[in-house]
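---------- Forwarded message ----------

FYI, see the Nucleotidyltransferase record below. Original note from H. follows.
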Amino acid sequence: MGQTNDILNDVRGRIDAHAEPLAEARGRLRLSRDVAIGFRGALRTYPSGSLAQHTFIHPVADGDGGVVLDRRVYPALGPDGADESPEETIEALCSLLGPSIRNVYPKARCCTSRRGPKIYFVRPVDGQDPTIDLVMALTRRDGNGLWIPDLKKSKWEASDPEQHATLFTSGGKSRAQTRRRTIRLLKAWNRQYTTVGFSSHNLSVWAWEFITEGMGLPTALFSVLDKASTRLEAGYATKDPAGVSPNVKPLIDRSIAARRLRTAADAVSEALEHDDDREAVLSVLSRVYWKYLEDPTPSGLAGKAAMLRRPNPVSTAALGLSGRPALVRPTRAYGTPLHSA
């Protein structure tokens, strides 16, 4: 194992979810599912997202799961029925969840979120108080997957969160472990931006596609960043691996998303080229994980970038620029000054 692997593992040590709040989130989801299965017409419940895939990073904010209702019990709901809004049914589900969960968490409350009940437990653990989002899903008359409500858009969408969890945890033990660790590193990289570029689901799809058996952590991380960037640059789509949902898209402009991925991929590649030089690798990877790593060389590119992120003007000399001395005033993205004279 080289320096790139060691430093990425140092980042992992900073981003991995803490054991106690993670266990609390799992227990809260289990309790919510145990209550929800008693709702009229409930066929089954399921875990989804980061809890099901073991890819949570710090802090543990929420846990995802769902309850699947038999559409024959609710014939007016969803696209296979009269397209009735699910709001009343979600409120009824909340009426079951709230009192039962308050037997364990006296201050808990159940509210309506975008896709179903959202449960607040009001009992922090290690400074974190994970909520639970429980999707209220319907079986479909035709095709795989489930109908998932979107109250924000007043529509139902086809998806297969159960199959996603199966796919994203599949493969041999080594491959599955590398995939989990890579997804966590991708999430941490993505969250450093003020406007995140990708959903966690998007990053998980790419990790499932691009990580193969036998890859180590640095190679896996480079593979996802490089191949995802190449795909976006070429204008190709990312298909839903379950074959149910629409194509998976970035959350920001495609060209900006591709550029972010390419910049990070190039940095990981450069780190691997200098894998026996810890200082060089740390300097390069600090451009990828600038909130978690410090550039050990003040003259390094990451150090200069950090100067430009400060609110005060920086001299051209401090940036190592030749020519007539001048001050470089910090700007926002797209050139808007941070401060006006």
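H. also flagged this: The beta strands are 42-48, 62-69, 109-112, 117-120, 131-139, 146-150, 155-159, 314-315, 327-328.
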